[in-house]
Amino acid sequence: MNQESEGNLNDHTVGFTSNLTWDLEGGWQVKLINAWRDWNDDQYQVSSGTLPIRMPGRQGFFASESKSHELQLLSPDDLFDGKANFVAGLYVYEEDFYIGDYRFLNNDFCNIFIRNTTADNPAGTRQRRVDYCNADVALPYSSYTDFWQNTQSWAAFWQGTYDIIPEWDVTLGVRYSSDEKEGLFDQRSLTTPIPGIISGTIASVDSAPTENTVLATDGTKVTYRIGTTYQAADDIMLFATWSTGYKSGGFDSGRNATVVGQNRVFAPETTENLELGVKSQWFDGLLQANATAFRTDVSDYQFRTYDGISFAVRNNGAIRQQGVEFDTTLYPVEQMTVNLAGTWLDSEYTDFTGAPNWPGLQPPFVDLTGERVPYSPEWQLTGYVRWEDQLPWFPEWTWSARGSFQYVDERMLSAAGDNYTLNNESSFMTYDARLALRNDDGLQFALIGQNLT
Hints:
16-stranded antiparallel sheet, globular
């Protein structure tokens, strides 16, 4: 196997944030939070792709300039005799975003790959395509894809908490969100058309179809949050939360072998979340035990899937993720800490009738309703044991030793959204270790080992 890669990356980010607070009479506060960020990335890559020749290269350009402003009004601590507090505000966001994908050819690709993958039918087709490919090597780029997007969003929100009794409080929240997006997708092949060949029999070497599509989408949504906490005992707190969520729609910016047009637009994604949990301490703080049961339902799930021609972000039905999380920490002696945390996850598509089929199989679309969602293992566990103590003869120095593990259950890694079984990853366990020495002045030495299997 041959694996050769050449590339370069230049990435530059600059930003500014500010947080201003005005203290008003009666304990009221006004906050103004501002942020500005400018990001530019230029990357170049040529790879053999495990073949004995260099494949066509690409140059990618990314740019983003964003700014946001958030104005908050915070209530005083003694509102309603200290039983209530709230925050209300306005949020404004704008971003200009650009992606450029430029491809270029090389002679090895033309003389070896094209020559050996082109049928000579009718006679002369193979050599003609090789000749035109070599002629196009002199082009700065064989094809390009440009994508521009402007996003303008604003939101108004309010969230407040009221103590019904000292041990029991209730939180209510509401948010109105508005999003507008405009975009332009421009794609073109610069290679020379090959004359004398029947249309549809053979394409030019870099046959990106010409597409110039103006895109637009907008949406508004009201989302809610209701929560409560109850101090059942000094060391036991119960809580419950119900909330809804919203992710704005947008545009798929991916390069495609066919003209996609307005099908690049995908709809907003919405969620409904429920959590029930407990946080507790036992045996005078020697044991901390927390657990949360959760359920999240996602509608119009935004996910990149394969349609037999290309990958694209689409709305892929609905999913449900539900399960239990736990986190326990034990302090057997002053120097020792033992932790175990984990998640049990029940995951499924509750509606995915238009899922892509496995590669090469018909029909092109199947029903994956009831199947597990990719990247959603049933079990995940982490844990560690740490010992920390002072050195006997040098009390200003502290030494520590820590061993940890991570377990991930079998999971589906299908990036195409087809749940192809060859993309299943078996369960695995990793181990890490750390031995450290530090003094009271902050000087530290550490020996670290990762993935010690």
